Prior knowledge:
The complex is a heterodimer.
Chain A: H1 3-32, H2 35-45, H3 49-73, H4 75-91, H5 103-150, E1 154-159, E2 164-167, H6 169-174, H7 199-214, E3 222-228, E4 231-241, E5 247-256, H8 258-294, H9 300-327, E6 339-342, H10 343-358, E7 361-364, E8 372-375, H11 377-395, E9 399-407, E10 410-418, H12 424-432, H13 448-455, E11 458-464, E12 469-477, E13 522-529, E14 540-549, E15 552-562, H14 571-577, H15 581-584, H16 590-600, E16 605-608, H17 611-620, H18 622-625, E17 633-635, H19 636-643, H20 654-661, H21 671-691, H22 697-713
Parallel strand pairs in A: 7-9, 13-16, 16-17
Antiparallel strand pairs in A: 1-2, 1-5, 3-4, 4-5, 6-8, 9-10, 10-12, 11-12, 13-14, 14-15
Helix pairs in contact in A: 1-3, 4-5, 4-21, 8-9, 10-11, 19-21, 19-22, 20-21
Chain B: E1 4-8, H1 12-24, E2 28-32, H2 35-44, E3 49-53, H3 61-70, E4 78-83, H4 88-96, E5 101-104, H5 109-121
Parallel strand pairs in B: 1-2, 1-3, 3-4, 4-5
Helix pairs in contact in B: 2-3
Amino acid sequence: MSPRLRFAFWLSILSLLLGSLLALAGGLLWADLNSQERAAVLSLLAGRGALLVVLCGLLLIPFGVLLRLWLAAYPEVVIRLSEEVGIIHRVNPAHRVALTGSRDMRRLGAALNAFAEAHCALQREVAVRIEEANARLEQEKNRLAALMSELDQSVLVCNREGRILLYNSSASLLLEPDAAGPAGAPVGLGRSIFGILDQRLIVHALERVRQRLQQDNPSPVAHFVTARGANLLRAQMAPVLDQQGELIGFVLILDDITRSVELNSRRDALLQQLTEGTRAALGNIRAAAETVEQYPQMDAEHRQRFGKVISDEAQRLSQHLEQVLSQHADLLRPQWPLEDMLATDLLLALQRNFAATLGVTVRYQGGDESLWLSLDSYSLVQALTQLMGAMVATLGIREVTFELAVEGRFVRLALRWSGMALDPQQLHEWEQRSCSPVAEDDAAASTLKEVLERHGGELWCQADALSGDNRLYLQLPVSQPEVQAPLPARVQGRPVYYDFDLFSQPGQTPELDELPLRELAYTVFDTETTGLAPSEGDEIISIGAARIVNGRLLMQECFEQLIDPHRAIPRESQLIHGLSPQMLAGQPSIGEVLPLFQRFAEDTVLVAHNAAFDMRFLQLKEAQTGIRFIQPVLDTLLLSALVHPGHAADEHRLEQIAARLGVPVVGRHTALGDAMVTGEVFLKLIPLLAERGIHTLKQAREASRKTLYAKLEY
Amino acid sequence: MSKTVLIADDEPNIVISLEFLLEQAGYQVMVAHDGQEALESIERQPPDLVLLDVMLPRLSGFDVCQKIRENPAWQHMRIVMLTAKGREVEISKGLALGANAYITKPFSTQELLAQIGAQLAVD
C-alpha cells in the first residue's frame, strides 16, 4: 500500500471515529434536554449549519496533521526498517538502516545498526573459519583443475543426465561450435553433452558401461568413435560411482584421431599398393619366365614374345614402385617422436653448441623464417656437434659459415669452411660412430647414421678445388607444422571449469516452472543499442551475456559480440556506450550473431534488467532472422520492485540496486559488464524472493507480472 | 578327345603364357577378354574348365562364376579362379560362389597345370 493511500485510509477512519464520537455526545445531550431547551438549541443552530460543518472540518485539521506526523514517525518507518533489516540479514550485511522518523524510532534504528555491526563481526569470524576449512578443499580441487588443464586429451565429466560438471580447455577447444559445421552448443558447465555429441552414441556407450558394471568387469569402460565436422573423435567413457557403487556420472576422454587415422589408412593403402598392386605383374613375369624355361625348344617368334612380356612387365613394375614411393615418401620414414622446429632455430642451437663446447665460431646471415622441420633436436644437435668436434680435431677448423637453402621438399644446410678438405671415406666412418656424449662404446646409443635415418636426412661433403671452399651438406625434409589454435585470451583469472555440486542436481525437465529458482540455469544478458526506439529503426550494436549455473555466475563462459547495425549511430548514444561507427564497421550483422546467441542461451532462463526493452529488440528481429527466444524471461527490475516495494521507482535502477545489495559495479554500459552486474544482482535477489514466499520460476514469473500491472496502473 | 579350357583374363601378358602352356599340355584352348565375352563363349561351346580371373571388365569373375553355377547344364564345369588379390575373404567368397579352386598371382605354372589336371581328372 502506498503511503498516500495509507494516509487517506487512516484519515477516513479517524474522521469516522470523531464523527461518531460527536454524534454520540450530541445524542446523549439531546436526550437529556427538555423540550424548551431543545427548542432553544434548535433555534441556536438554525441557519448555522455551514458554520458547524466548517468547525468540524477545522477540528479535523489538527487531527489530520497529527495523524500524518504519527504515520511518518511510526508505521512507515517500521515498514522501511523491516525492509532494510531484511537487506542486512539476507543480502548485504554492510548495509545500515537510515535513521528517520521519531526520536524513538531513530533510537531503535541506532540499536539495530549496532546489532547489525555485532552480527557483521560475528559473521566475519564465521566466514574466516569457513574460509580456512574450504581452503584445503579448494587446494585439492585446484590440483585437479591444474592437472586437467595441462592434459593434452580432452576431458569432460558429466552427471547421469549428461550435464557437464567439469571440462578442460582442451575439450572446449576441440568441441568448439563451428559456424560452418553442425549446429552444436559450446561446452559449458551445466550444459547438456547431448547438445554437443550425438545423444544415441553416448546413451549406447553408457548402456555398455552399465552392463560391464553389472558383470563386475574390472574395466567397465566403453569406447566409441564419432565424426564431428571434418574431425574424427575417439571417445573413452568411464563410469563415476558413488559410495554405494551406484553410477552417478561418467568421464569422457576424447582424442582427435583424424590425423592418425588418416596416416594409418594411407599406410594401409601404401602396403596394399606395394603387395596386391605387384601381384599381377609378378604373376605375368613368372608365368612367362617359367614357360620359356620349360620349353627350351620353343621357336624364335614365341621366345621373343615371351621376352617382351617379361621386359614390359618388369618395366611396369618399376614404374609402379617409383610412383607409389614418391606418393608416400613421408610415410616411409621411421616414426620416431619428432617435434616441429623452425630451421633457423636449429641453426641457432647448433651455433650456440659449437661455440660453447668446441670454441668454433659460426657465422650465419639469417634466412627463411618460415621453414619448419620435424626434429628430435637434442639428438640431432648432439650428433652434429660430435661430428663437428671430429672435424675440428682432424682438419683444424676454427670458423664455419652456415648456409640455408631449399631444394624441393628438402631443406639443405651447408657448413662451409676453407682449408683442408674432408675425405668422404672419413665421413662414412664417423657416421658409424656412436654419438653418445658419455661413452663411445655405449651399445644403446645411436650412431650419427641412425639419427639421420630417423629424420629422413642425408649427409655428404663436397670440396670446391677452385675456390678452396669445403662444404658439408645436411639435407632434411620440410614439414608442415600443425596449426596451433590460439588460446582464447579473454579468460582472466583462474578458470572455473568444474562444478561437482551438479552431480546432485536433476536434469532440466519440462516442469521447469516448478523448479526452485536456485537450481535453474540462467543466461543473464544485456544489449547496447543505437537508441531507445526499436520500432523506429534503432538496432542492437552489442550483446553481452554470462551464464549462471547452480547459483554461480560463470565468469569464464561469457558471450560478447559487437554487431554492425548497418546504420548511423547517434552521437548521444555513443556517449553512453562509447561504441564508435569505426569499432562496429566490419563486425558481423545481427542475422549472424543471433543464432550464436541462441545457442549460447539454449536450455536456460533469460535474465535481464528491464528485460522488456531488450526482448522487444530481439522480438522485432524474429521475422528477419527466424530466431525466436521462447525461453522464460525474468527481469531484475521487476524482481527488485517485488522485494523492495517501499523504495521509489527511481531506486530500482541497476546502479541503485547494485549499491543497495552490495554488488560492485564494474564496466557499466558495456553489454557484458552490465550483464555481469545484473547476474550478481539476480543472485542476491533470489534469497529475498524466497523470504516473500517466491521459490519457483512460476511464482517469480506470476509475481513479476503483477508488479508490472501495478506499475502500469500507477 | 582333348579337354577344352576357357581362359578368361583381360591381361594379354598372362594369356599368352597360359595359352601356350595349356596348348603344350594338350588342351583345346579358348580365350575371352572380359566377363561378358566369357559367358558368350561358354554358351557357344561349354568348356570342361574355366580359368577365370576375378578382375574382369564388364562382368567380374565372381559374377561369371555365379552365372555358370545358376545354369543346371553347367554344374559339372570346373572353375579355377585366378586373382591378384590374395585376401582370405575373397578366396572364401569365390569358393562359396561355386569355384572349384582358387589360385593367387603370382603362381607357379607347374602347380597351375597340376591343379587343372587334377580338376579335370575328377570326372
